[in-house]
Amino acid sequence: xxxxxxxxxxxxxxxxxxxxxxxxxxxxxxxxxxxxxxxxxxxxxxxxxxxxxxxxxxxxxxxxxxxxxxxxxxxxxxxxxxxxxxxxxxxxxxxxxxxxxxxxxxxxxxxxxxxxxxxxxxxxxxxxxxxxxxxxxxxxxxxxxxxxxxxxxxxxxxxxxxxxxxxxxxxxxxxxxxxxxxxxxxxxxxxxxxxxxxxxxxxxxxxxxxxxxxxxxxxxxxxxxxxxxxxxxxxxxxxxxxxxxxxxxxxxxxxxxxxxxxxxxxxxxxxxxxxxxxxxxxxxxxxxxxxxxxxxxxxxxxxxxxxxxxxxxxxxxxxxxx
Length: 322
Ligand code: UT7
Description:
Mean pLDDT: 97
CATH architecture of the largest domain: 3-Layer(aba) Sandwich
Bound molecules: oxa(dethia)-CoA
C-alpha cells in the first residue's frame, strides 16, 4: 500500500438519542402488535422517539459536539458540514446550515444529502471526495433523523420498525495508511414505490407518511448489500477475511445476519444496535459506529466496512482503516 496518500481519516465519532426510550411492550399498548412479533421478525427491542423540542438539527448538533470532543477539535476547525437526512427540520434551509449556526461555525460549506437510509454513506463519500480534492480539511459528516414524525402510527407493519437519533463523524485530511480506502455507491430508481413517503412540497404540499413493501425491500437488501460489500472490498484490495468489523445499516437483524453469512463473516465481527435503536435511517451507521468505538470494540487501524441500503433504492459501502 502507498503510505504517502492523502486520505480522509475518521478522527472522532459522536451520537445522540432522544430522551424518550420506547420498548416493544410500550408500543403494543397502543398498536396491534407484540414484543414477540417485533423481536422475532426484526430483532428490535427499543427505539427512541423525539419530543417536540428534539429535532433532526438538535440531535445532529448534539452528536457533532461529541464527535468534535472525541477528535480534540472545536467547531472553528470545521470547514465542511454535510447532514444526511430524509426528515429535515424544514423543507429548506438545509439542516446542515441550522446545525452550523447551533455549533457556531458560520461561514463554512454546509448542505444536506438525501439518500434516505444510505444517506450517511452518500454524505461520507461526498465529504471524502472533497477532502481528497483539497476543498475541505476537516468535515463533519452527520446522519440525523426523526422518522417518528413521518410514521403512520396506524400502520403496524411500519411504525414498529423505526426510531429517531443522530450520529456524526469528524473526517480530516491526513497523509498515511489510515482513512477511507474505497467507497462504492449505487441507486436504482425503478424501485421508488417499494419504500417512499406519500407527500412532498412539489406534489401534495404535505409532509406525507412512510410507506413500505417490507418483504420486497428485504429481498433486495440482502442481495444488494452483499454485492456492494464485495465490490468495495475488492476496490480496496481486501478480502472479507481481512475485515475486523462490519458496521451495517440497522434495519433488521435478519438482513444483517443473512448479509454477513453471504460474505462468510462471523456474527461477532458485526456491530448490532438494531435491538436498542431500531431503524434510524441515515443515523443508523454513524450511531452504531460510535457505540462500537466508545465501548472499545473498534480500535485504531482496524479495517471497518460501513454499509447501508434504503429508499430509492440507494445502497453503498465504504471500507475504512480506523
Ligand atoms: O431501512 C430501509 C430498509 N428497510 C428494510 O430493510 C425493511 C425490510 N423488511 C423487513 O424488515 C421485513 O419485511 C418486515 C420486518 C418489515 C416484515 O417482516 P416479514 O417477515 O416480511 O412480514 P410480513 O410483512 O410479510 O408480514 C407477516 C405477517 C402479516 O400477517 P399475515 O398476513 O401473515 O396474517 C402481517 O399482517 O405479520 C403481520 N404483521 C404484524 N403482526 C404483528 C405485520 N406487522 C406486524 C406487527 N405486529 N407490527
